[in-house]
């Protein structure tokens, strides 16, 4: 038989996305195809592969047809698979794509190919596969990963290693069900072994370094029941997706990420009853500046319960829990954490399916009204939100057969982000979600129109968690910062010695921002840090990073010069944030982007990178930098950033003497808890910028006669806004307000 040169694509994946996409898409639908000749099997690919007829003829003529193991057509299929030709490349592209229709022309050939693989005896031993990137973060635990594609390996390292060049990853895999196709391959010297679709592999040992290459030792593991596994593979895919998405990207630097296990660090949950007890204790306290800190510390009381036991207080028939959490406290992280734990088998194995639904996704653009006049079903929601690919007709039928409402746990994240703007045609779907017997729903503690017997609250990092998080954050930067360990220790000591900043740091998103800032500047002279000051500093840092891409001299600009240089970009973000809040929307669509640009008098051609400043995140999977950026949907990297920039918009128009607009906003929304953080940011921005006239206007209308009968909400908004004002002498009314609050107490 003639020898073929080594086929790079079979043994080496060029990119991370190529490898992951190929192994996330199952290919069981070919099972229903009839077993036909190789000529018939590839007839439907003539428009995909040029000269396919010639390649088939060559395979039939040169394959090993003398073996009793395979038919002539099956042997030809193996030869063609291993032949350096467009066949493998086109087949591989079809296996990788999320468009399930792309693989259909290959079903008959896959049936022939898989039949040949299955007839071959299974072998054990070590085989090698290469990946042209650092894949050390994929196998950071001992969980099994499912590879759904056909993965070619070699018995000899000499085949894979030369293909990597100077870097990359080598997998040393101990197989138990490998298919040795050397006898039938186009090049027998490659000693090719195939891992079948659905192979489960897990890490067996720590990674090693070999001449600049990372070696990861894996082992193939057998499913407990192969037949049951194949019939339930849809739910296995969901678990694998949750396990693959187990890293939390940093807000400011998405290139850096933490394992969900490290990022979560025991966020405490307490019952509402315990929370209300602490609030009553606060009301009896003597008022002073320290009471402002105590007000924050209510939400820092650490009385944790084990997350996997949160259903213990529920009725036997229904497991429904409402979980509150303030801005940045870690509600979405909590949701991702429990999906990861379920996928690992650590939590709630009684549920066959766990469906994570970000409620902000329930928009008209994503779920347009159905032309038939029908309503969306829960199955429709699972198809779109839980699976990363489009289900085939067969898979959808299988999902409908296997879905059991009593064995499904729904995780509904972000009730507060949806409830003010529910599309009318999705109201029935939302009601179906609320009526599911098993679900967890998260929300900020306002706009709650739901009645739940079991309510809990996420309260943020404990003191120990803060130290652990800082240590992990700077450990990850040890290769970039020579003094990373020293910075870690210095920051921890600094936070503990500053009560105001220590209180702010118990909120996870704030601590990440503090660590990000500390890695770039000296905080030794900082004595007080409000939430507003923190977001101001982050905005300045992002602006400097944004400008640095064009000229290093911008790093020397003063803060005022920096704001002036980025005036257009900041005006755009301010207009965008306020308009989105006014429209009750989290997802920012292209029409809203263009409207904000127009209102800010910005021509996109003059600011081509305006979306890349670091505040907005693309809703599509590919991220910023792909497709036409203005045609994508976006959202602020965190809702608190949208609230911060909305506050900047209001302070800006207040300084422009558009007082009536701001007064109307205060009057309409002062007691709406959805805008609490906006008002806090306004108070902080006006105070930090020494805007005495505007600050007095703001406080005059905040302090106007209370509209709520008891006055608790009025007092709450006063305390929160006062907490953001500077204690410097420039704000002469501070003492007056402290006295006012003390009398009310």
From TrEMBL:
Its EC number is 2.4.2.31. PROSITE patterns: NACHT, TR_MART. Pfam families: ART, NACHT. Residues 319-445 form the NACHT domain. GO terms for molecular function: NAD+-protein-arginine ADP-ribosyltransferase activity; nucleotidyltransferase activity. It comes from the Eukaryota. Gene3D superfamilies: P-loop containing nucleotide triphosphate hydrolases, Toxin ADP-ribosyltransferase, Chain A, domain 1. It is an enzyme of class 2 (transferase). InterPro entries: ART, NACHT_NTPase, P-loop_NTPase. It catalyses: L-arginyl-[protein] + NAD(+) = N(omega)-(ADP-D-ribosyl)-L-arginyl-[protein] + nicotinamide + H(+). Keywords: Glycosyltransferase, NAD, NADP, Nucleotidyltransferase, Transferase. Belongs to the Arg-specific ADP-ribosyltransferase family. This is NAD(P)(+)--arginine ADP-ribosyltransferase. It comes from Adineta steineri. The lineage of its organism: Eukaryota, Metazoa, Spiralia, Gnathifera, Rotifera.
